[in-house]
Design brief:
By secondary structure, this protein is an alpha/beta fold. The chain has 17 helices and 20 strands. It folds into three domains: 101 residues, Udp-n-acetylmuramoylalanyl-d-glutamate--2,6- Diaminopimelate Ligase, Chain: A, domain 1; 212 residues, 3-Layer(aba) Sandwich (UDP-N-acetylmuramoyl-L-alanine:D-glutamate ligase); 136 residues, Mur ligase, C-terminal domain (Protein-Tyrosine Phosphatase, Chain A, Alpha-Beta Complex), CATH 3.90.190. 35% of the residues lie in helices and 21% in strands.
């Protein structure tokens, strides 16, 4: 198990087995510290973690990675120089561990701890669908293996190593979502996590503004499959329906396992049918096996999520009966959820984030549902040169699906403009500046039997619309 001695050894190379205090996990927010936590005092643009050291220790943190001396009288081990046994024995928790860089120390510790553990790691990346795939794959794997997943969106150079500190010798599998903004980021995460299996969901212009180009996004996502060990230990699970993803087969030493709707894929689906809020139904094919599946996931796009989870389980030697049980009885809390709105309306809450592909997938779900369909769509941010084109693609689909459109934000006016061009009447289109205006409009507009899809980038605060409408329900 991870102990204070393990932490010190990882950061200094010196072994002090008598430092046996158990470290339960890591935290960068003092409010999230629990008994046994390692608090990591990071300096941000607005706050400095060193200012919250006392709060972290009060909540039970046993140690903290710090970059400077902090008033308070806590014991300190300076890990920038060799330690003596006397110095180590004299420090009783809570203790400050002085390091040159708290973030680099966290990453070094996570990598060293992972290296000590005998388990298989499944890394997941892609533009859309990472979190849902992580949740479902972990749930299916739990049918046979003790599995850890990174919670929430702890998928970057800070969140992933924090998640890795939760690993124990008892874990047999870890499913780790890996986020991406710029090339080199996923390569770093792979050096820490050492995945043997890599799953790539799809490639779209999410974060194009930061990455710079589609080629940069492809290169960044490909770092996962490039990091995998050679076959047979390494397996790259690739989307056969996405040419950019399928092209990554040439960039890995691992065995390639493909999934999709093409019979040429190793695992493929046919006869897919969206059942609205009742889930999806399809037939899975693998080799000579054909299996009928009903999965309680929303939207036909979720067939890909189920395929990815099943692919992970197959390459991890799980039998079909256990896989199907995990898929069909999933309790995964995925991001799109249905909630009750005012006047008997049904709200589809998909406010976590937005990209053209994910918005169109949500609109496809809206198309499966009965009632007056209203699309409330906010700006999609960080699309770079794809910005106008991406919004107009969404607008064209809105005209095919929805009876009404509420466009929220400056960029969403492209959605409204394209929806009008595609035939949605001007009286059915409203353009508002922000989520507050959208909430006020919808309170008087929606009624019994209406189905309202609400989606946009996080920066548009579309979740405030859901909160405001739930209050009125």
């Amino acid at each position: 198990m991870l102990t204070l001695g393990t932490v010190v050894e990882a950061l200094t190379g010196q072994a002090f087995p008598f430092l046996g205090q158990v470290v339960t996990d890591g935290a960068i927010d003092s409010r999230l510290a629990i008994p046994g936590s390692l608090f990591v005092a990071l300096r941000g643009e607005r706050t400095d973690g060193h200012d919250f050291l006392a709060a972290a220790f009060e909540r039970g943190a046993v140690a903290a990675l710090v970059e400077r001396d902090v008033p308070g009288g806590w014991a300190t081990l300076d890990l920038r120089a060799p330690l003596t046994d006397e110095q180590a024995r004299a420090c009783q928790p809570p203790v400050c561990l002085r390091v040159p860089s708290a973030l680099q120390a966290l990453q070094t510790l996570a990598g060293a701890w992972r290296a000590k553990l005998n388990l298989r790691v499944i890394g997941i990346t892609g533009s859309v669908g990472k979190s849902s795939t992580k949740e479902l794959a972990a749930e299916v794997l739990e049918g046979r293996y003790r599995t850890l997943k990174n919670p929430g969106n702890l998928n970057n150079e800070i969140g992933l190593p924090l998640s890795m500190l939760r690993l124990t010798e008892m874990h047999e599998r870890a499913v780790l979502e890996m986020g991406f903004y710029v090339p080199g980021e996923i390569a770093l995460l792979c050096r820490l996590a050492r995945p043997q299996v890599g799953v790539v969901t799809n490639i779209s212009p999410v974060h194009l503004e930061r990455a710079g180009s589609m080629d940069a996004i492809v290169a960044g996502k490909a770092e996962l499959v490039e990091s995998l060990p050679p076959a047979p230990e390494g397996v790259a699970i690739l989307n056969a329906d996405d040419e950019r993803v399928l092209g990554m087969a040439a960039r890995t030493r691992a065995r390639v396992f493909t999934y999709g709707f093409s019979p040429e894929a190793d695992l493929w689906a046919s006869d897919d049918e969206g059942l609205g809020l009742e889930g999806i139904r399809f037939v899975l094919h693998h080799g000579r096996d054909s299996l009928h599946v009903h999965v309680p996931l929303l939207g036909r796009h979720s067939v890909h999520t189920a395929l990815r989870a099943a692919a992970v389980a197959l390459v991890e030697d799980m039998p079909w009966d256990t896989i199907l049980d995990g898929l069909q009885h999933t309790l995964s809390q995925l991001r799109l959820v249905a909630v009750q709105g005012p006047h008997g309306a049904l709200l589809l809450d998909d406010t976590y984030n937005a990209a053209p592909s994910s918005v169109i997938a949500a609109l496809n779900l809206l198309a499966e549902l009965e009632g007056r369909r209203i699309a409330v769509l906010g700006d999609m941010l960080e699309l770079g040169e794809f910005e106008e084109r991406g919004h107009r693609m969404v607008g064209a689909r809105v005209a095919e699906v929805a009876e009404e459109l509420v466009a929220v934000g400056e960029r969403a006016r492209w959605i409204a403009d394209e929806a009008a061009r595609a035939g949605l009447g001007a009286t059915r289109i409203s353009a508002v500046a922000d989520s507050a205006a959208a909430t006020e409009l919808l309170r008087s507009r929606i009624g019994e039997g209406d189905v309202v899809l609400i989606k946009g980038s996080r920066g548009m605060h579309m979740d405030a619309i859901i909160a405001g409408l739930e209050e009125a329900a």
